[in-house]
Amino acid sequence: MPTKTDSTSQTRNTVYVAVFAAMIAAMGLLPPITLGIIPVPITLQTLGVMLAGALLGPWRGALASLVVVVLSLAGLPLLSGGRGGLGVLFGPTGGYLVGWIFGSLVIGALFKYWVLRNENKGVRFVSGLISVLLGGVVVIYLFGVPWTAATTGLGLGTSLLGSLGFLPGDVFKAVVTTLVALTVHRSYRGLMG
Amino acid sequence: MIASKNSSYLARIKPGWKFGALLVLSISLYLIDSWQLLLLSFILSIVLLLSAKVGFKQLRMPLMSLAMILSVVFVLLGLQTDWGNAIVSVLRLLTMCLFAYSVSLTTSFDAMLELFQQVASPLRFIGANPAQIALGLSMTIRFIPELKKVYLEVSEAQHARGLGNNPLAVSVPLVIRSLKIADETAEALDARGYDSAPYRR
C-alpha cells in the first residue's frame, strides 16, 4: 500500500474526491423522487454526501462535499433545483450545506475506524446504519436547524419541526447508503487505504 | 447563478471588495431591528440589483424558491410571535439574498474561484497543494456530465430488467462505475507523468 506522501496515491486521492464531488452534483441535477407515503420529495443530493463519506473515508469524503459547496457558492447551479451562488449561504438553508462537509467527515471516520472492522455481517449493517444516521442526519441537522433558527428568528423547536418533514427521506437514503457502501466495500477492498 | 457577460460598474469592482462588503452588510443587517431601516435597505438592495443590469431570466428560479421558503417562515413566525416580527425577519432575509445575488451575478465564476483560492492560500502552510486543488475543482466540473450520463445508462439498463425502481440496483453499479472512471483517470494522469508531489518550499 503506498504511503500518503506517495505522489501516485496523491493523484488518486484527488481524482476520487473529484469523481465523488461530481456524483453529488450530478445527483442534484436529477429530478426529486416522490414516494407515495412521504409528502416531501426526496432529492438525491444528500445520498451522494453520505456515500462520499462511507466510501472514501473522513478526509476525502469531507473534501468531496467541500468541493461541491465551494463550486456552488462560486456560482455554479449545482444544488437541487438549480440553486447556487452566495445567496444560498446567506439564506435559511445555508447551514445544511455547511453540515454536509462535517456529515461526510463523521460518516467517513465511523466507517473507517468502526464499521469496516466488524466481521459479523449483521453487526456491520447495524453499525453502518447508525454511522450514516449519525453523520448524515444528526450532524447535518445540527448545523442546519440552528442556522434556520438564527437567520429567520424562528425558535429552535419550530425549525426542528420544519426539518422533520425531510426525516423519512433521509432515513431511506441512510439505509440505501449503508447497503451500497457495504456491498461496494466487499468488492472494492482497500478503498480507504 | 453566474454573471453572464455583465458589464455594469459592479462587475468592475474587485470580487474581494464585493465579498467583504456583503459580509459586513449581512452582519449589520442582523443588528438592525427597526423595520423602517430594514425597508430602506431592502429598497437599496433592489436599486443595486437593478442598477447592475442583471438579467431577470437568471433570477426567476432562485427568487421563486426563496419566496416559497420565506412565505413558510413568514406564516410560522407570524403565528408563533407577532406579525411585525415576521415582517422584520422576512425583510431582512430578502434584503440579504438580494445583496448576495447582486454580488454573484456581477462576478464571473473564474473571478469567484480565484477569490476562494486566495482565501484558502494560507492552507499551503499546512500541506495543501494549490495545483492539486485546482486540478480537483476542474476535474469535478468535467466529471459532472460524465456521471449524469453513467446514471442514465445504468437506470435505463435496470429498467429493462424491471429493476428501475430498486435504488440498490441503480446505486451499486453507479458507484462501481464511478470508481472505475476514477481509477482509469488516475492511471492516465500517472502514465502522463502528472506531478502531484506535495508543494515544497
Strand content of chain A: under 5%
User: Number of DSSP helices of chain B?
Assistant: 8
Overall 3D shape of chain A: globular
Write down the overall geometry of chain B: extended
Helix share of residues of chain B? over 70%
Number of domains of chain A: 1
Helical run tally of chain A? 8
CATH topology name of chain A, in short, is Arp2/3 complex 21 kDa subunit ARPC3
Sequence stretches where pLDDT stays below 50 over 5 or more residues of chain B: none
Mean pLDDT of chain B: 84
How far the N terminus sits from the C terminus of chain A, by CA atoms, comes to: 7 Å
CATH class of chain A: Mainly Alpha
As an assembly, this protein is heterodimer
Computed Rg of chain A: 17 Å
Number of strands of chain A: 0
Mean pLDDT across the residues of chain A is 87
General description of the model:
The complex is a heterodimer of chains A (193) and B (201). With 193 residues, chain A is an all-alpha fold. Chain A has eight helices and no strands. In chain A, helix 2 packs parallel to helix 5 (94-113), helix 3 (58-73) runs antiparallel to helix 5 (94-113) and helix 6 packs across helix 8 (167-187). Chain B has 201 residues and is mainly alpha-helical. Chain B folds into two domains: 9-108, no CATH class; 127-191, no CATH class. Chain B has eight helices and no strands. The radius of gyration of chain B is 23 Å and the shape is extended. The chains are: A mainly alpha (193), B mainly alpha (201). At the A-B interface, helix 1, helix 2, helix 3, helix 4 and helix 8 of A face helix 2, helix 4, helix 5, helix 6 and helix 7 of B.
